[in-house]
Amino acid sequence: MKFFADTAEIAEIRELQDTGLLDGVTTNPSLVKKSGRDFLEVVKEIAAVVKGPVSAEVVATDYDGMMREADVLRKLADNIAVKVPLTIDGLKACKSLSGDGTMVNVTLCFSANQALLAAKAGASFISPFVGRLDDISQPGIELIADIRLIYDNYDFATEILVASVRNPIHVLEAAKIGADVMTAPTAVIWQLFKHPLTDNGMAAFLKDWEATGQKI
Ligand code: E4P
């Protein structure tokens, strides 16, 4: 499973990048607002730091506007995935862009039928939002299982990018289903490393080692 960081904070991205476990980054307009940075500048900077796909979202809502913005975004770096919303115009833009060899991430997916459409439109990634479904009492993770089944039935190459990940349980369940990618806030990714028994075990081993008086 690939790990993408869901953030526009360059310092957080660099810190995770140092682990060697970061495969890409996703941004959205809300994350850009939170960063307080210039959109094009921050996306270019992220794409220079991370080798894998960096998603940058269009904000136009019509096909022509999306195509114009996509053209600006894809020129920023070779590893940009243009993020388009799961709307009719968004899927039309997805079809055109993927036909040109541009990576496309279709976002704001909340149903398996929407994911089916995105795959037919040639999306590189489909982003189903598990956390936001949980928020309205619909089990988000069930959507991931449905999409996995449908994509496997038809051998679609579109990667399932689990988005709106809020906790390590989302990551675990998505991995058990066989999602291709998950994107999460960096705090959630750091949580994956932690277990209290690891900390306790380390402390006990170090204490006993010190008592031996030996050195390596
Ligand atoms: C990523 O591509 C999505 O925009 C993001 O995961 C949404 O997360 P949120 O529902 O926590 O805002």
UniProtKB/TrEMBL annotation:
It catalyses: D-sedoheptulose 7-phosphate + D-glyceraldehyde 3-phosphate = D-erythrose 4-phosphate + beta-D-fructose 6-phosphate. The keyword Transferase applies. It comes from the Bacteria. The active site is at K83. SUPFAM superfamilies: Aldolase. Pathway: Carbohydrate degradation; pentose phosphate pathway; D-glyceraldehyde 3-phosphate and beta-D-fructose 6-phosphate from D-ribose 5-phosphate and D-xylulose 5-phosphate (non-oxidative stage): step 2/3. It is an enzyme of class 2 (transferase). InterPro entries: Aldolase_TIM, TAL/FSA, Transaldolase_3B, Transaldolase_3B/F6P_aldolase, Transaldolase_AS, TSA/FSA_arc/bac. PANTHER family: FRUCTOSE-6-PHOSPHATE ALDOLASE 1-RELATED, TRANSALDOLASE. This is Probable transaldolase. The gene is fsa.
